[in-house]
Specification:
Blueprint lengths: L2 H12 L39 H32 L2 H26 L16 H9 L2 H14 L4 E8 L4 E8 L11 E8 L6 H4 L3 H8 L5 H15 L1
Helix pairs in contact: 1-3, 2-3, 4-5, 5-7
């Protein structure tokens, strides 16, 4: 997928709120793109302990995600100026910054919703129809978790491991992406249901270099209800 197509897809994602509702005046084009903002977490910073420490959540949300938002907005403003000035060289240079920081914002906005405290349903297995679909494609929920853990542990450097819906093939998939590439960079037909951040900043202060342990423990706070809601919405659209 070309970088230009990727940028357009990221713009389209950012033009739509994460619950799937489009602002009436928003279209996925540069002139109407609003600046991004850091979303509030739907739980306290210490609510995911012991799986994810308060220290990590504060750093991850307030520092890392905020940086992606700040740098994306800065690059978007520079891109507008470059286009207005006909500065083609700067337009090309800015695309990688927009992809990286825009992707970082998109991915983390999903990630926070993919997590939930245990007392609010975190780790509670999904119900049908998602449960049956997982059994059909991966044998069991445990089979899916093992596959994602293996794929996530094998990511070289930094990136994400995704559980998603392939709307084109009408099946559930596990994919990985490098750096801050959203799942959509693997194809516009892929819908993210669960994304797990395997950058070191997501686990190192607590787990050090034990990425596999982080991946094992994070399932205790995965918000399967969110994944099930997204699956049902898109599954209805396919039927």
């Amino acid at each position: 997928m070309s970088i230009v197509v990727t940028i357009i897809l990221i713009f389209a994602i950012l033009a739509v709120s994460l619950d799937g509702k489009r602002e009436k005046t928003m279209e996925p084009c540069l002139e109407s793109m609003k600046t991004a903002s850091l979303p509030d977490l739907p739980y306290a910073y210490d609510a995911l302990e012991p799986a994810i420490s308060e220290e990590i959540m504060r750093l991850h949300h307030q520092k890392h995600h905020q940086t992606y938002v700040t740098q994306y907005n800065k690059a978007l403003g520079s891109l507008r100026s470059a286009l207005a000035d006909g500065d083609h060289s700067s337009v090309v240079k800015l695309q990688s910054l927009i992809k990286f920081n825009g992707g970082g914002h998109v991915n983390h906005a999903i990630f926070w919703k993919n997590l939930a405290p245990v007392h609010e349903g975190g780790g509670k297995p999904p119900q049908d129809p998602l449960c049956s679909a997982i059994d059909a494609h991966f044998g069991s929920l445990e089979g899916l978790m093992q596959k994602m853990n293996a794929e996530g542990a094998a990511v070289q450097g930094s990136g994400w491991v995704w559980f998603g819906l392939d709307k084109e093939l009408k099946r559930l998939v596990v994919e990985t992406t490098a750096n801050q590439d959203p799942l959509v960079t693997k194809g516009p037909h892929l819908v993210p249901l669960i994304g797990i951040d395997v950058w070191e900043h997501a686990y190192y202060p607590q787990y050090k270099n034990a990425r596999a342990e982080y991946l094992k423990n994070i399932w205790s706070v995965i918000n399967w209800k969110y994944a099930a809601d997204i699956f049902e919405k898109h599954n209805r659209d396919l039927n």
